[in-house]
Amino acid sequence: MDTASIRIDASLLQENEGKIVRIMGNCQSFDAPARHALLEANGTVNLKLVSDETLSVGKNYEIIGKVGDGQSVQTYSVVELSDNVNLQMASKLVQYMKKVPELYI
């Protein structure tokens, strides 16, 4: 993927509408037939899965996708992360990246 993406969480979805983003979070629910999942990332993110990704409830993931309307993200890439990932620290990183974006370009 050649397009740059910014790291966000659920609190920043609306201000990044139409942009490609990265989100780290924990899968709260997964509906395979509907190709839909809920990700907890400092709030709830609705994922619209476009390919055959299978998510496991309770696992941590990094999602790359395009923010649609308000609270939904159409996924481009789904990567399972370690169970040891500290999602609270990831949320703090998001806030620092928002305050000082020039450090993370």
TrEMBL record:
Belongs to the replication factor A protein 3 family. GO terms for biological process: DNA recombination; DNA repair; DNA replication. The keyword 4Fe-4S does not apply. This is Replication factor A protein 3. It comes from Meyerozyma guilliermondii (strain ATCC 6260 / CBS 566 / DSM 6381 / JCM 1539 / NBRC 10279 / NRRL Y-324). One of its GO terms (molecular function) is DNA binding. SUPFAM superfamilies: Nucleic acid-binding proteins. Keywords: Nucleus. It is found in: Nucleus. Transmembrane segments: none annotated. One of its GO terms (cellular component) is nuclear lumen. Pfam families: Rep_fac-A_3 (PF08661).
